[in-house]
């Protein structure tokens, strides 16, 4: 019997397996940020240990960074975490994309950008959206702070072998529908737990048509389906993306690596624990109406009623969600007005996301009463966007143009939404209080966020001329 992609990477990294099924995995890349690392470094220091492989450890700061002025950290806890990361990296010899580094940015944006993320690697970070890196055919998952310490000290990690789930994405996306809509629709259909205990391999004919950035958006949110990780087999698009990036292999090492990467795919006769086929051709742009990423519908839909759901557990969850969100069943999604729009986060703050949003707002203006923010995912994304003049398109339209960081994705820095107000957000989580106490988050694609900012309420981006003129085909607008 053949092997799945996951099994190939897993088997190549197992150092030893115990009778109870736990395996010790070798970790190729350990990404670190300021929020989940302080106790881990403190533990190392306490035990008098050093880092096993400092060259395979890379740190950045993102969650706490104020995006109006990164050097003016007003919050004392944030300041302490940022300073502590700087000290820890110095003491333990870890490479750090500091606030003044040209490489600083959201950890899941900079890993791929710098060529740290490559096919076949095992990648961990004390952060759930580490699943993003799976788009390269790397086995990448989030770990807790005590595991961060374990990996720092040993470069290994104990894990139970997850099950495998394949999702075959078939068909092609309509103009204005993006990979963000694919993952939101999948989670809306199957729920936030369907991936629990599994590593998802996204396969099917759609993947080959997507850019790396679009693929990352899907893998980023596989964690919101409950999965341990999301994976996609590397192909020529992956290889072209990685080539010549600062940390990518070079010369003979590159040739050898590419030869191995071309073998990294599930064998034809590989068997998955679960197999799903999902047709994307009829998808509409998605908008979440509730308080988990699975509570969503097409923009052409309406807010559901608790009675539309079968189980009493779901009915209660929906009742509570609608109350928190201040929504009435039957309301058209397009009748929901927003006061804030956030284009950013590790899900959708890469250059293609910004190009797509800019193509929609170009020459137009943000609606009255709407505050709109664009927060590039990294310094590199920001530089690239500015070299293309995108910042001018955004600022002329009334958007704020910020410095890189997690920003409004979560309320750990000054960018928050006031209680009771509504935000169309390109991020990945819409939990209660996620963007600030009492804040109401609606998850959407960058195209939808841009269109919503202009109208002041949700609107079907497929009605925008830019979508049809410039070929805003699932997010590749230039
Ligand atoms: C702060 C961090 C631990 C957290 C995570 O693990 O995902 C954050 O990045 C998030 O998106 O909620
Ligand atoms: S951008 Fe949001 S989801 Fe991504 S790492 Fe930061 S807080 Fe987490």
UniProtKB/TrEMBL annotation:
<keyword id="KW-0456">Lyase</keyword>
<comment type="pathway">
    <text>Amino-acid biosynthesis; L-leucine biosynthesis; L-leucine from 3-methyl-2-oxobutanoate: step 2/4.</text>
</comment>
<dbReference type="InterPro" id="IPR050067">
    <property type="entry name" value="IPM_dehydratase_rel_enz"/>
</dbReference>
<feature type="binding site">
    <location>
        <position position="406"/>
    </location>
    <ligand>
        <name>[4Fe-4S] cluster</name>
    </ligand>
</feature>
<dbReference type="Pfam" id="PF00330">
    <property type="entry name" value="Aconitase"/>
</dbReference>
<dbReference type="GO" id="GO:0003861">
    <property type="term" value="F:3-isopropylmalate dehydratase activity"/>
</dbReference>
<keyword id="KW-0432">Leucine biosynthesis</keyword>
<keyword id="KW-0408">Iron</keyword>
<dbReference type="InterPro" id="IPR001030">
    <property type="entry name" value="Acoase/IPM_deHydtase_lsu_aba"/>
</dbReference>
<comment type="similarity">
    <text>Belongs to the aconitase/IPM isomerase family. LeuC type 1 subfamily.</text>
</comment>
<dbReference type="InterPro" id="IPR033941">
    <property type="entry name" value="IPMI_cat"/>
</dbReference>
<comment type="subunit">
    <text>Heterodimer of LeuC and LeuD.</text>
</comment>
<keyword id="KW-0100">Branched-chain amino acid biosynthesis</keyword>
<feature type="binding site">
    <location>
        <position position="346"/>
    </location>
    <ligand>
        <name>[4Fe-4S] cluster</name>
    </ligand>
</feature>
<keyword id="KW-0004">4Fe-4S</keyword>
<keyword id="KW-0028">Amino-acid biosynthesis</keyword>
<dbReference type="InterPro" id="IPR015931">
    <property type="entry name" value="Acnase/IPM_dHydase_lsu_aba_1/3"/>
</dbReference>
<dbReference type="InterPro" id="IPR036008">
    <property type="entry name" value="Aconitase_4Fe-4S_dom"/>
</dbReference>
<keyword id="KW-0479">Metal-binding</keyword>
<feature type="domain" description="Aconitase/3-isopropylmalate dehydratase large subunit alpha/beta/alpha">
    <location>
        <begin position="7"/>
        <end position="456"/>
    </location>
</feature>
<comment type="function">
    <text>Catalyzes the isomerization between 2-isopropylmalate and 3-isopropylmalate, via the formation of 2-isopropylmaleate.</text>
</comment>
<dbReference type="InterPro" id="IPR018136">
    <property type="entry name" value="Aconitase_4Fe-4S_BS"/>
</dbReference>
<dbReference type="InterPro" id="IPR004430">
    <property type="entry name" value="3-IsopropMal_deHydase_lsu"/>
</dbReference>
<protein>
    <recommendedName>
        <fullName>3-isopropylmalate dehydratase large subunit</fullName>
        <ecNumber>4.2.1.33</ecNumber>
    </recommendedName>
</protein>
<feature type="binding site">
    <location>
        <position position="409"/>
    </location>
    <ligand>
        <name>[4Fe-4S] cluster</name>
    </ligand>
</feature>
<keyword id="KW-0411">Iron-sulfur</keyword>
